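Technical note accompanying the year-one report. For the benefit of new consortium partners, we illustrate the data format agreed upon in the data management plan: each record pairs a sequence with a structure-token string. No post-processing was applied to the example shown here.
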Amino acid sequence: MILIVDFGSQYTEVLNRVVRESGAEVMVKLPGLFDMDELIEDERISGVILSGGPQSVYAEKAPTLNPKWLNGRRPVLGICYGMQLMAHLLGGTVAHGKNAEYGPAELIICGGNSDLIPTIHLQEQVWMSHGDHVEILPTGFSQIATSSDGLNAVIADSKRNLIGLQFHPEVVHTVHGKALIEHFVYEICGAKKSTETNKHAPKARAMLAEQLERLGKQSEVICALSGGVDSTVAATLVSEAMGEKLHCIFVDHGLLRKGEFESTLNLYRENLNLNVHPVNASEIFLERLVGVSDPEQKRKIIGKTFIDVFEQESKKYTSCKALVQGTIASDVIESSHSSANAQVIKSHHNVGGLPETMNLSLVEPLRHLFKDEVRALGRELGIPEDFIRRHPFPGPGLALRVLGEVTQDRLALLRDVDSVLIDQLKREGKYDAVWQAFAVLLPVKSVGVKGDGRSYDSVVALRCVGSRDGMTADWSKLPLEFLANVSRRITNEVAGISRVVYDITSKPPATIEWE
């Protein structure tokens, strides 16, 4: 098997997935676990991958590793922090650069010893996310490639089968990243491929059955429907197993897109035959958001209000013992300490425990799936394709796209802008070409001229990105003609908008959503 040592990277689960989907058996361990040293002698482990992480190797209590793992007994691939730690433990020097490197990058091949890594796979875009870098190589290492800034990006020690990558090969935006990982796993480590398929329904059903078994066969459950793909797939999966014992609560919190509540409710009832109960709670959500501008406070208020609403609704279903949620892997990774060394990127209202007073346990059958895997599962379950292809939408809704205070007027303005953007993408056949597209209403105004008069209206930013699982994303290079058309339509058709800007920032360093 391949051992992945998790130093707190937001991408560890992505790395786990890439290795697992290639067919190899994987074990993920935290560096501080008591059995790590015992595993050094474990003959089942044919290779080791050291993950990235948010810390510096020189930081107090920085996660570390027994140097015996680097003695050449088995191949080791260090990624980002893993590369830096490897160099640090073997006598090299790690430094904090004047310029950090985030997002897409091109490598420069240096011609060093590359027996362990095919340099042909390094000659297209890779994905960086680091501040520190290896400045002086340990004895025995060769420089294989540098970044455009001249920093060590690929290093290798052929005698000990040690490889260091400063970029992240596990993310989809490293063009040949999957090939690099598979080369390490199979050509360098000699791991064996499994013949298992990548069908998601059997695994999801098995996980659900295990969760439901704990509740008892006569239990009923309620499901938190947001109107998005994740919660819909979760509800459909649970409905398949429980039928009318599943009570879906679909809340109109007043933060959905234009006409979305009505059209989605119709889909649930007519196409998916879900036992769904609509709840109009928009007034209480908007009341609690009055005067609130901080994004984390917004998320927490919305999360608490969801809980309050479900707590109230659950009183109608006295036999319900659990709440079904569409939590997926990227929610868990970015919202919680996935390891002792990980950092929270943002909070999500559907991740974490429920208040004890609610007396409901959680059922989360999609917790270990990424967005594209959830979509694949939805297709296996027969959910209509036009719904499955919908762009991701945050649980807290448009509250995260109205920067500053959320009001009815500002929501209405954003809904109209968002509607124009999505309509234009579909008109020009570009909706499926981007992974997610949306508008953000900024808390600023800009001078404009309309007709012969001066205007002083709001500014909107358009955000269109390409991604596979939401863990990394690059801004979509849409044609200038498209951007001109959508800008013209927004300023002509939506009263109150004087300026349109386009966000060209990748993730990292930005997140996909602005808040």
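Partners are asked to follow this layout when depositing records. The first strand starts at residue 2 and ends at 5.
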